């Protein structure tokens, strides 16, 4: 399959935040990503779509080196160039912890820590050694405001995060990801465990967040990708089939395979 | 059965007959009842044995307390039931039990927790597969062997460091008892830590946490209730341990909280009397039931505490 020319899709005035270049990735002997290339534009939302097992979550988890946690995973070629550092995130000399400080993540199922709401948000600051109470208070407040949760929890910051509703828990996880001022936030199907109302609030939030931060989101829901993303990448069987501006990709896909998928004839 | 009670609301013409296919099968019913009875009997047996033990302890203790006032038992500071001038102060034995248990726990809780953290959060698959069986072997060593290990190996070493240490002492017995308890604390704590969902760890790593930060700040709090249960089990083992203390701690009733002295514990006293030639039914003999009842109440207290801790810190993930 031909590798799409990633730069073609760019629009005037957009800045590259990261580029995936000819990335190969293996789970043991399984070739999960095959020469994948795509751009990530600064302060835009990029959606990864495709049927289950197509490698979209695998690609997402390369960005913050989550694969390093498990034995047998292997970055086998190519890389992810991070800007403005112009550094390959997958290089063995790059410290995954430093990567995760810059590139944060929100998971599929809300996973608040068994701690208070305050401590959940303060966590990413505490792991950086922040001890100053006033600074922590300020950062926690602004992160909770950024995640549109402050009004609901400002008077009960000491309660367990697990006491919140599912949608609130997911916003708490977004606040947690925001607290450290990351440059990219990765969302791995953030609404698949939520009801439609909570989903709408998360989608609205994602759209607001792109003012400040670059967003990469994996979603099973094509309508969601169409609603909130600026760019969309369609993946199939570990390959990047098509990358484009979301409106163009959904209205006039270049590839027959993409059209089949987004029209529901397949997948 | 009760479902037929709602049938009258149906029109009279419906459900009058019962077809062969749907009627109750007698053989199935009987089999179910037999199995249920067998299962109930098995469950009832353990309850019966527990009650029988409590009955024996309470009955024998009752006749003991007919001769010895409860206040003497609780507040006397001497334990000399076999002397002419008999005293029955359980605190003497209790001090031995508490001191040796404290020494054991000072060893077992920190080491057990650290081992659990290592095995659960740091060790690779291979290391864990090799280390765990060895750890469990430590728990399988007969306690009499531990007792002689304390008496003939550890005590001489401790005497080199601390020459005044008597040959029989609570310290050496307690330290070895701690080693014996490590596997219980480590194994149960590790189970609790491993039960923490991977999603929580990933959340922590994704925030830029190190392994140690994840282990201490996320996994351990999430596993609190299981770890607390492990500690309680360790305490119960320490309080109930007999042989190590009987062999290495001297069996001399001694009101002390100083581990470098010899001492008798509730359990080692019971062994001493049970093996001796006191006539059954004598006061001296009945002391062991009063001591046994005290022990039972202590372990009951710890079990209840463990139960409460489990409920209080129920895993919330």
Helices and strands, with pairings:
The complex is a heterodimer of chains A (267) and B (317).
Chain A: E1 16-27, E2 30-41, E3 45-49, H1 56-63, E4 73-82, E5 87-88, H2 96-102, E6 103-106, H3 117-126, H4 133-146, H5 150-153, H6 166-178, E7 184-188, H7 196-209, E8 214-218, H8 222-228, E9 231-236, E10 239-245, H9 246-251, H10 256-262
Parallel strand pairs in A: 3-8, 3-9, 6-7, 7-8
Antiparallel strand pairs in A: 1-2, 1-4, 4-5, 9-10
Helix pairs in contact in A: 3-4, 3-6, 4-6, 6-7
Chain B: H1 26-67, H2 70-75, H3 90-122, H4 125-140, H5 143-161, H6 170-194, H7 198-206, H8 211-222, H9 224-240, H10 243-248, H11 266-275, H12 283-312
Helix pairs in contact in B: 1-12, 3-6, 3-9, 4-6, 5-6, 6-9, 7-8, 9-12, 11-12
Question: What's the quick description here?
Answer:
With 267 residues, chain A is an alpha/beta fold. Chain A has helices at 56-63, 96-102, 117-126, 133-146, 150-153, 166-178, 196-209, 222-228, 246-251, 256-262; strands at residues 16-27, 30-41, 45-49, 73-82, 87-88, 103-106, 184-188, 214-218, 231-236, 239-245. Chain A has ten helices and ten strands.
Main β-sheet of chain A, in a few words?
A: 6 strands, mixed
CATH class of the largest domain in chain B: Mainly Alpha
Beta fraction of the residues of chain A? 25-35%
Number of separate strands of chain A: 10
């Amino acid at each position: 399959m031909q590798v799409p020319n990633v730069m073609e899709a760019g629009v005037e005035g957009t800045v590259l935040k990261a580029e995936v270049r000819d990335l190969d990735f293996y789970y043991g002997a399984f070739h999960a990503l095959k020469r994948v290339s795509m751009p990530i534009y600064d302060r835009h939302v990029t959606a990864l779509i495709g049927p289950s097992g197509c490698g979209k979550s695998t690609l997402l988890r390369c960005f913050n080196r989550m694969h390093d946690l498990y034995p047998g995973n292997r970055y086998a070629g190519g890389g992810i160039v991070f800007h403005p550092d112009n550094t390959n995130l997958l290089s063995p000399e790059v410290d995954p912890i430093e990567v995760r400080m810059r590139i944060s993540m929100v998971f599929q199922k809300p996973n608040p820590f068994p701690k208070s709401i305050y401590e959940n948000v303060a966590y990413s600051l505490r792991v950086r050694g922040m001890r100053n109470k006033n600074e922590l208070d300020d950062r926690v407040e602004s992160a909770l405001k950024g995640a549109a949760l402050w009004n609901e929890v400002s008077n009960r910051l000491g309660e367990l995060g697990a006491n919140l509703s599912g949608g609130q828990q997911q916003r708490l996880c977004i606040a947690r990801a925001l607290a450290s001022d990351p440059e990219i936030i990765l969302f791995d199907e953030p609404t698949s465990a939520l009801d439609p109302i909570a989903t709408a609030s998360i989608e609205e939030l994602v759209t607001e967040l792109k003012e400040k931060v670059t967003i990469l989101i994996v979603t099973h829901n094509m309508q969601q990708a169409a609603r909130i993303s600026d760019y969309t990448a369609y993946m199939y069987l570990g390959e990047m089939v098509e990358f484009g501006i979301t409106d163009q990709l959904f209205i006039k896909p270049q590839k027959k395979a993409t059209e089949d998928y987004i029209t529901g004839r397949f997948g | 059965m009760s479902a037929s009670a709602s049938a009258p609301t149906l029109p009279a013409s419906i459900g009058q007959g019962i077809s062969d296919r749907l009627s109750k099968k007698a053989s199935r019913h009987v089999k179910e009842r037999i199995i249920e009875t067998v299962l109930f009997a098995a469950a009832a047996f353990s309850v019966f044995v527990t009650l029988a033990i409590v009955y024996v302890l309470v009955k024998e203790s009752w006749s003991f307390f007919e001769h010895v006032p409860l206040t003497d038992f609780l507040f006397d500071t001497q334990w000399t039931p076999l002397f002419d001038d008999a005293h029955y102060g359980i605190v003497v034995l209790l001090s031995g039990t508490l001191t040796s248990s404290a020494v054991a726990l000072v060893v077992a809780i920190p080491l057990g927790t650290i081992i659990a953290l290592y095995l659960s959060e740091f060790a690779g698959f291979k290391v864990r597969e090799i280390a765990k069986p060895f750890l469990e072997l430590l728990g399988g060593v007969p306690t009499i062997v531990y007792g002689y290990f304390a008496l003939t190996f550890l005590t001489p070493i401790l005497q080199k460091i601390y020459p005044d240490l008597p040959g029989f002492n609570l310290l050496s017995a307690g330290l070895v008892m701690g080693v014996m308890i490590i596997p219980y604390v480590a194994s149960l704590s590790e189970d609790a830590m491993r039960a923490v969902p991977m999603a929580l760890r990933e959340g922590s790593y994704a925030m830029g946490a190190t392994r140690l930060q994840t282990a201490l700040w996320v996994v351990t709090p999430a596993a609190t209730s299981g770890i607390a249960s492990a500690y309680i089990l360790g305490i119960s083992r320490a309080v109930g341990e007999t042989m190590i203390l009987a062999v290495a701690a001297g069996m001399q009733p001694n009101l002390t909280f100083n581990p470098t002295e010899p001492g008798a514990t509730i359990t080692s006293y019971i062994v001493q009397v049970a093996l001796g030639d006191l006539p059954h039914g004598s006061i001296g003999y009945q002391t062991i039931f009063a001591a046994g009842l005290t022990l039972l109440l202590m372990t009951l207290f710890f079990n209840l505490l463990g139960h409460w801790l489990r409920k209080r810190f129920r895993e919330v993930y």
